[in-house]
Amino acid sequence: MVPSSQAAEKQMPAEPGPDPELKSWRCLVLYLCFYGFMAQLRPGESFITPYLLGPDKNFTREQVTNEITPVLSYSYLAVLVPVFLLTDYLRYKPVLVLQGLSYVAVWLLLCLGRSVLHMQLMELFYSVTMAARIAYSSYIFSLVRPARYQRMAGYSRAATLLGVFTSSVLGQLLVSVGGVSFSTLNYISLGLLAFSLLLALFLKRPRRSLFFNRDAPVCRGAAPSELDRMNPDAKPGRALLGAWRDWTLVRMLRELGDNLRSPQLRLWSLWWVFNSAAYYLIVYYVHILWNVVHPTTDSTSVYNGGADAASTLLGAITSFSAGFVKIHWALWAKLVIAGVTAAQAMLVFLMYSTNNIWLCYVAFVLFRGAYQFLVPIATSPAGRSCSHPRPQHSGAPRPLSSSWKASWRTGS
What Rg value do the Cα atoms of the chain yield, rounded? Predict the structure, then answer.
């Protein structure tokens, strides 16, 4: 005779144990954040333009402005969508390895290249590294359950911002205090990037991704062969018509169309496109402007690294504080966008018109801080006034807008 309590225990279904894939998620997230930090340690990046214009490479300002730097913008536009699709199809890790290889190629060309063509190839490889940032920001969501998405995104962004800040400060200290040449600084960057590539090789490759590697859909537990036997008269053409609607690219475009029906989302998307385009153009060319305002052959008086460090720190503060701003965005979004964009335009005009390098530095720091303030608002449900249901398990794909949301998390 079994006691009633024991009988009840036998009748109750056993609770599912922890997901084996999530047992070691803490170690995986820690390793990924460490990789993200190390991948940002490029102390020579803030001084690439004075390095190209200096005696080490001896390119003219016209060559750097008109022949070398523009390659980055056009090549980035060309590789962005293919890399985005490959990131999901190849399940993140191969694209992170590609990013590491591209970083190494960038600094090998910087150190050893001599011609304009070499520098143009350098910009091409650099555009691949920029497009591949989506792989890092999306990878972390494959390691944890949906309930931890927001916290993990904060960890990954903090790791990359800390890496950018440390890199800029380290580069400035080595140049101004240590008297290290730009050439030596680039070799140091090459060594650090080779180490980050080694770290990428040991990353775990997830079995699932957002779109191309989804879990197989289940139709009430019936296998396709069973459904065929239940409905033998079904027309092949009708089945094909229903199948193409489930193709990955068609589903992505359908979700994009659904999202853009929201007026708030259209507003923030337009801001995101045009402001981001202007932002990256200014970030690309501002070092050339600084060299025009303050031409010097003394490397210890170049404070590009300090300006990058200060702008990164202010950007981190403003993006963090944006999460605590309580505004009725449906009512005030247009006014806030107009005000911040007008302030950015005035800061750009100040950089263009002043002959004081310190005013240029301050204007650039404030410009990046203003951009980083609106980015988290533009990518949050509060700012867009639209929300999507969260998936109920770690294998379920997030909405397309959520995958785009991840892309800003690693941007400097």
Answer: 25
Which amino acid, 349?
F
349 CB-contact burial (10 Å; exposed 0-12 / middle 13-18 / buried 19+)? exposed
Q: pTM above 0.70?
A: yes
Token pair 């720091």: residue: 365
Pair 144, 26: CB distance under 8 Å: no
Residue 372's nearest CA partner among 272, 284, 267 is 272
Dist CA 134 CA 131 (whole Å): 7
Any idea what DSSP says for residue 219? B
> What is the Cα–Cα distance from 49 to 56, expressed in whole angstroms?
11
Nearest Cα to Cα of residue 192 among 33, 42, 30, 412: 42
* Phi/psi-derived region of residue 342, left when phi > 0, alpha when psi is between -120 and 50, beta in every other case: alpha
Judge whether 136 and 14 are in contact, CB under 8 Å.
no
How many CA within 13 A on the CB side of residue 377?
27
Residue type, 226: E
Q: What is the pLDDT of residues 152-174, one digit of tens each?
A: 777 788 888 899 999 999 999 99
The continuous run of DSSP H or E covering 253 comes out as: helix 248-259
Residue 258 host element (H or E): helix 248-259
Query: What is the number of other CB atoms lying within 10 angstroms of the CB of residue 24?
Result: 13
- The per-residue pLDDT for range 330-349, each reduced to its tens digit, is 677 788 888 888 999 999 99
Q: Evaluate whether 410 touches 269 at the Cβ level (below 8 Å).
A: no
What size, in residues, is the chain? 412
Distance of alpha carbon 121 from alpha carbon 236, whole angstroms: 50
105 within 8 A of 124, measured Cβ to Cβ: no
CA distance 367 to 341: 10
- Euclidean distance between CA atoms 52 and 83, whole angstroms: 28
Burial of 385 by CB count in 10 Å (0-12 exposed, 13-18 middle, 19+ buried)? middle
Rounded CA gap, 184 and 384, in Å?
46
Token pair, residue 11, equals 């009748």
Q: What's the first-to-final CA gap in the chain, in angstroms?
A: 69
